[in-house]
Amino acid sequence: MLLFRAAGRLCACELDAVREIVAARPATRLPGAPAWIDGLVNVRGTLLTVVDLAVRFGAARAEGSAGSIVIVSGAGKVFGLRVDGVRDVRTLGGDALEPVDAQRDAGGVVKALAHVGAAGDESALVCDIEAIAREALAVQDGTTTHG
User: Fold this and answer.
1) Which of 7, 98, 117, 127 has its CB surrounded by the most CB atoms within 10 Å?
2) At 9, is the secondary structure helix, strand, or coil?
3) Listed ranges 96-105, 117-126, 129-138; the one with the highest mean pLDDT
4) What are phi and psi of 27, to 5 degrees?
């Protein structure tokens, strides 16, 4: 799992979904897109939709271009996740993952809670990359109601 911070929270995603990590850069906003869609960025000639995880989790949008963009693939789409910063990579066994209930799943984009501290005392929200991709695709298709 790749560990990173978004909205001051420790988060994670499966490493096999990660394509690349690049320095954050300003995004071109998309008219009518929900606030959690940061916009489009150009990465070596390819335009990518960027999801601001902090905003998706209900926090305020970070000002400036600090942080990173984690380029991921899910639901047949390549897109970016704007995060505060990348922490490290960890191998987590099945016993380190705990399912989340509907009150803690952030609208369906968090699929588990990972216990990542040495003594299991630190937790990370495991992002559902497929669900985030489906939301981003719905925005492009004009069918989203979230946000």
Assistant:
1) 127
2) strand
3) 129-138
4) -110, 150
Quickly count helices (H) and strands (E) in the chain: 2, 11
**What tokens does 107 get?**
């609208």
Task: Tell me how far the alpha carbon of residue 1 is from its chain's centroid.
Answer: 13
Q: What is the pTM of this model?
A: 0.86
CA torsion, ordered 63, 43, 54, 83, to nearest 10 deg: -90
Residue given tokens 């939301």 in the structure block: 135
For residue 71, CA distances in Å to 19, 51, 56, 67, 102 come to 5, 10, 16, 13, 27
Sheet with 123-127, strands from edge to edge, namely 85-89, 2-6, 9-13, 123-127, 110-115, 97-99
- Residue 16 CB neighbour total at 10 angstroms: 11
pLDDT of residue 145: 47
β-pairing verdict for 77-83 and 68-74: antiparallel
Question: Tokens 């985030």 appear where?
Answer: 132
Domains in the chain: ranges and CATH? 2-141 (2.40.50.180)
Per-residue confidence (pLDDT) for residue 87, from 0 to 100: 94
Q: What's the whole-number mean pLDDT along residues 37-47?
A: 93
